[in-house]
Amino acid sequence: MPRRCHTKSRRGCVQCKERHVKCDERRPTCSLCVRRGLSCIYVAPRPRKRPSSNGGSPKNNGSDRASSHSSGSDPEGFSRLPRLKEMSLFYQSCESTLPSISKDEKGGQFWEKVPQFAVTHDHVMDSLLALAALHLASEQVDRGEIPSWLETALTYQTHATTGLRQDLATNPQNIEASFICSSIILILVTAYPGICWDDAPTDPLSEILTLRSILSGAAFLWIQMVGPERGWLDDWVYREGNNRLVVARANEDTNLVKLHSRTILMKFRTLAPIIEANPGPNSQIYRETYTLLLRSLETWPSGQGSLVWPIRVSEEFMTLVQQGDWTALIFVLFHGLDRHLSSQKWYARDSGKRLVHGVIRKFGTTIPLEWMDMVDWVGRVVEV
């Protein structure tokens, strides 16, 4: 049967070309990148040479767009908001957005630095404005108001990503600013799908790999900033200590606290004897993954373990997930439950439910008999 041909999108965005999918070329952000919460980057085509009427070089008529700030020329299609609207977004970020992310004093100390770096680094400012716009989108009661804020957020995120790349290439000493920018982009990518009301199916492996890629960059910058002896943000990520946990859980919804301690955590601990009772070539991978996920669950809600879990698991574990190994997929489902516990946060809305539904949708026809009850139970929990 002859292969059906289609019109190539020669002016499509970089992300669609890398995924080998047709781009609708919508500016500043194509529809596929909106659905996936990705930075949509267009590369300007090379201008065609046109002969001038006088046989010489065309004169500059003053219509060329000047470069914006110190980060270089803007990506094609990028236009800033009026200055007062940008200032309004900056105020929103300082007064509401950043405090909504900070969980305790240590987290507050980190996020308090962001405005200081934003006023001296363009890419940090653009990422912060994107975060404020996305936060405003999450608060809109009228769904008709959401698309304009989403477009603003994605536009500024795209510019922040471009600026970050340029800064890493030309000013490698600006490590702390780059780390802050990459941390904000991580939150943006995590938050988009829950805010844009997109019902498109989630590919669980693709989502984890995307977060893993962004986290790898942030981890590299962190190690360059503080040195390898400090580890990967362990104290900031896990927030361990009884006092922290007591204070954090006292501020959480009581139903979520009960769901965590009396249901999810107890059920997860039943996996340990199952793993030990079934030795095999992957037993060590399962044990290591179990330990990482248990630590993340035990430090909820004071920690950020669910956010960084994708980078802590091994390449061998990710290979098992890709192969559809159901013991590995059970861990992914519990990671979804870990994220579900934070679903009341605007930047984590429905993230756990999407991941759980994505796993069940993709691998549901191959569930082994011994895992059927567990999978059914997880599916019911995310509906609570």
Automatic annotation (TrEMBL):
The keyword Transport does not apply. PROSITE patterns: ZN2_CY6_FUNGAL_1, ZN2_CY6_FUNGAL_2. The keyword Secreted does not apply. One of its GO terms (molecular function) is DNA-binding transcription activator activity, RNA polymerase II-specific. Transmembrane segments: none annotated. Residues 45-79 are annotated as: Disordered. Pfam families: Fungal_trans_2 (PF11951), Zn_clus (PF00172). CDD domains: GAL4. Keywords: DNA-binding, Nucleus, Transcription, Transcription regulation. InterPro entries: Fun_TF (IPR021858), Sterol_Uptake_Regulator (IPR053157), Zn2-C6_fun-type_DNA-bd_sf (IPR036864), Zn2Cys6_DnaBD (IPR001138). Residues 12-42 form the Zn(2)-C6 fungal-type domain. Residues 52-74 have a biased composition (Low complexity). It comes from the Eukaryota. This is Zn(2)-C6 fungal-type domain-containing protein. It comes from Penicillium angulare.
